[in-house]
Amino acid sequence: MRALVDMLLPVIQxxxxxxxxxxxxxxRRSSRQxxxxxxxxxxxxxxxRDAKALRDWDASRGRTxxxxxxxV
Length: 72
Known about the structure:
- This protein is mainly alpha-helical.
- Helix content is 74%, strand content 0%.
- It is elongated and about 45 Å long.
- The two termini are 19 Å apart.
């Protein structure tokens, strides 16, 4: 689990930060706490239902696991 989190954390942080910046009010940046909260929510969803979202990944379809998570 630690290796999985270490691999996916930078990808998820980047995507969450980008999404929050894209939707932020003018002149208001999202706080680090906002990013951390949403990152936690993403991990909860990825691991929900016995990690169904992660188990749907199929390497033979051409995406690495981090790129698949970025897509999801």
